[in-house]
Amino acid sequence: MVATAPTACIYACEDISVAEQFAAIMQTDYYRLSVTTDVTGVEACAALKNFYAIGVSAMQTWYPDQGRADGQSKNPTAAVFTQATLEMARLCERLGGQTTTAFGLAGLGDLHVTVGGGRNSRLGQGLGTGRTVVEMLSSELFGETVEGVDTARVLANMALEKQHTDEDPLAYFPLASAIMNAVLQQKRFTLDFSNLIVQ
């Protein structure tokens, strides 16, 4: 903000008039703001984007593209980014938020930023090269907090609560399942693209 670089944010408050008042005070021609009453959805996305950034970032290195300067594949990454957003929307709804929040700044917007760099992104890129979470956390990420790993544990507990239902988590959350297998089961990251939901 000090550099006046254009950016956009979302303010969430149960009282929309309060959010609007804060937005009116803070907004400038380069700091653009939207408001929502979906506090639950915004908070859910704040945690979920770290988790899903691991899977999206894994695609950048799992299918390396030597023809690109950064060596990162774009098409597989775009497909998984879309899947991540769809799954975030489903999880937002299950947690009591609105699906539309996942398709805005709090969801796909923040996911895009997180995939662009940071600890969750670095973990994902390491997993994409065939390394394990233990290997990454004991070397490049040693001593650092990777929020997506903590979110994986919370999601695993949620899944346990659903284990006696007829719901197949792989059918609804194939990317989340793949990330949790790698993060919590210490397996090498793998994702069956035939399970992705193409829209």
From TrEMBL:
Spell out the coiled coil positions from the record.
none
Q: Does the keyword Calcium belong to this entry?
A: no
Q: Does the keyword Lipid metabolism apply?
A: yes
Q: Which SUPFAM superfamilies match?
A: 6-phosphogluconate dehydrogenase C-terminal domain-like
InterPro entries given for it? 6-PGluconate_DH-like_C_sf (IPR008927), 6PGD_dom2 (IPR013328), G3P_DH_NAD-dep (IPR006168), G3P_DH_NAD-dep_C (IPR006109)
Q: Name one GO biological process term.
A: carbohydrate metabolic process
What keywords are annotated for this sequence in UniProt?
Lipid biosynthesis, Lipid metabolism, Phospholipid biosynthesis, Phospholipid metabolism, Plasmid
What family is this protein classified in? Belongs to the NAD-dependent glycerol-3-phosphate dehydrogenase family.
Please report the name of this protein according to its UniProt entry.
Answer: NAD-dependent glycerol-3-phosphate dehydrogenase C-terminus family protein
Provenance organism:
Rhizobium leguminosarum
